Structure formats: C-alpha cells, structure tokens
C-alpha cells in the first residue's frame, strides 16, 4: 500500500549536534525503499539548502528537495494570497530567501504584510516599526507560534510565538500563523510528496504541533519520546497519537514486525496488501 512520511527534525532526527539513535538508519531505509518523505521544521532561520547541508554533515542521506520549512510555506502562501506583494520582515536569511524566491519584495515602509520568524535580530526598534505598519493596515503573519525553541545546551530561547505575542498585544491584531500545526504547511508538504490523506504519516516529538496537526488533518501519527514530550504528559491531551515509541530506532522495530509496513497496514498477501478502512481501524484498536 502506498504511504509516506512527514517528519519533524529537532527531537526526532537529532538533538543539537547529536543524531538520535535509529534516525539515520530510518532515513536510509526510506531512500532505499523509495518511500516518499519530507522533513519539516517550523524554524524559518535557515534556507532549505542550509538545512539539507546540516543534515548531510550529521550523516543523513538528504537532498535539498527533502526539506520543507515554515519560511517556504509562508512565502508560498503569501504568493498565492497576493502575488508580487511586499513584506516587512522580522527574521533571518531563510525567510528573506523564501520570500524573494516567491516574488516578494522586502521593504521598510508601507508593506502589505508584516512577517515574523525566528531570529536573534529582534529588537524594540523593529517592534515599533512593525506596530506602526500594522496600525496602518499591514497584515500580521507568523511563520509559526512556537513560544520557545530548543538550544544546543538543552535549554530554550524565545521562539517566534513569543515575539509575535508582543506585536499582538501592542496592536490588538491576531497573527495568522502558517507553520505547524497549521493545515496550510502540513497540507502543502503532503502535496509535495504526492500522497492522499490516509497515505500520510506524521512523525514528531511535540503534541501541540506535530501530532495535533496530523490528527486535525486525518494523517496517521507517530509520537517519538526522544524530544520534548514525555509519556507522562500524554494524559493531559484530548487527542492522542496512533503509535508512541521511544525513538525512531523503536519504530524501525515496529515496522520490521509487519514486513516493513506501519502496523495499521496488513502484511501483503500474494503481493496485495489489505486496504480497507474497517481493517485498519480494527488493527489500531487491537494494539
């Protein structure tokens, strides 16, 4: 049965400069079996090429086409909403590059949109300018609403959502967010790999973004506990992932018990896998 993956990166594939056990082998298996996938990130700082290079240096068999960032999703969304528009940007190179690639000009007065992404250049001068522009009618766009981001020393720093919250409070205008768990980014990523909703599997380490987005769109969901979510956290949520594993190493073991297929797909019989929704539901309930 045809299937493929949308995979979060930080906390699933790596932590800082360390590869999480099983992650490189999982990506290798996807490439070897020609299973389509995209690696998703809400971080808009780096370009697609920069992210691919980082992953390659960590030992992953990744091409640029395998990466899909919130900066790309945001720029493509704006290009559809207002082709050839203008944006005042609070963010870094990845966001600027994506906007330029989609026909947008970055300006410092009278923009169509104020676009906010992660970055270390955030300051009160930028905030004041953005507030004036929003007050004059510019629309407020966030690449994501993550309140914080993990750092390499197992700490955190303010994320895009924290920066956007200041602008929302100052202007009374709610930002429109494009990154995970928004269906805009997650649907666009699915379309990039050419799969239907029930053929798509979202793997992530964060309930509030990866798993929530997957559940809302009807994707299959796999939570790995190698990142920000712990097993004891799960009872707090009204929704749940279909599978919970310690890491991608354990997920590889799950697949190996079912001829390399996810557990909701039956082993092929005479080369023809079972595909009925009723059988899939029964398999999930039996786990």
Low-confidence stretches: 272-287
Whole-angstrom Rg = 20 Å
End-to-end separation in angstroms reads 20 Å
Tally of DSSP helical segments: 10
Q: Tell me, briefly, the overall form.
A: elongated
Question: Could you give the order of strands across the largest sheet?
Answer: 5-4-1-13-14-15
Order of helices and strands: EEEHEHEHEHEEHEEEHEHEHEEHH
Structural class label: alpha/beta
Biggest sheet features:
6 strands, parallel
Helix content: 25-40%
Average the pLDDT over all residues and give the rounded result.
91
SS strand fraction: 15-25%
Number of strands: 15
Describe the structure.
It is a single chain. This protein is an alpha/beta fold and about 290 residues long. About 35% of the residues lie in helices and about 20% in strands. It is built from 10 helices and 15 strands. The strands form 4 sheets. It has a 6-stranded parallel sheet, sandwiched between helices. It has a 5-stranded parallel sheet with strand order 7-6-8-9-12, sandwiched between helices. Strands 2-3 form a two-stranded antiparallel sheet. Helix 5 links the parallel strand 8 (about 115) and strand 9 (about 140). Helix 5 (about 125-135) crosses helix 6 (about 160-170). Residues about 270-285 have low confidence and may be disordered.
Could you name the key traits of this structure?
287 residues; alpha/beta; six-stranded parallel sheet; 10 helices; elongated
In brief:
The chain is of the alpha/beta class. Helices cover 37% and strands 18% of the residues.
């Amino acid at each position: 049965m045809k299937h493929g993956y949308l995979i979060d990166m930080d906390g699933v594939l790596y932590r800082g400069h360390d590869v999480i056990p099983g992650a490189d082998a999982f990506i290798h298996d996807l490439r070897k079996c020609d299973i389509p996938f995209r690696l998703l990130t809400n971080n808009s700082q780096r370009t697609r090429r920069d992210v691919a290079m980082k992953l390659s240096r960590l030992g992953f068999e990744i091409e640029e086409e395998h990466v899909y960032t919130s900066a790309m999703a945001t720029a493509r969304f704006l290009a559809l909403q207002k082709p050839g528009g203008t944006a005042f940007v609070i963010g870094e190179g990845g966001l600027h590059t994506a906007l330029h690639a989609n026909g947008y000009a970055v300006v410092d007065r009278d923009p169509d949109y104020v676009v906010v992404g992660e970055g270390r250049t955030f300051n009160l001068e930028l905030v004041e300018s953005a507030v004036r522009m929003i007050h004059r009618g510019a629309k407020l766009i966030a690449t994501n609403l993550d309140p914080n981001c993990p750092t390499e020393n197992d700490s955190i720093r303010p994320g895009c959502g924290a920066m956007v919250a200041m602008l929302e409070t100052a202007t009374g205008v709610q930002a429109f967010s494009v990154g995970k768990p928004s269906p805009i980014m997650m649907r666009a990523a699915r379309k990039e790999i050419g799969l239907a909703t029930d053929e798509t599997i979202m793997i992530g380490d964060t309930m509030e973004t990866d798993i929530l987005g997957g559940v809302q769109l009807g994707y299959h969901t796999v939570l790995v506990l190698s990142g920000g979510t712990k097993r004891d956290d799960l009872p707090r949520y009204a929704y749940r992932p279909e599978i919970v594993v310690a890491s991608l190493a354990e997920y590889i073991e799950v697949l190996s018990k079912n001829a390399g297929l996810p557990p909701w797909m039956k082993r092929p019989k005479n080369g023809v896998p079972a595909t009925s929704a009723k059988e899939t539901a029964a398999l999930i309930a039996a786990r």
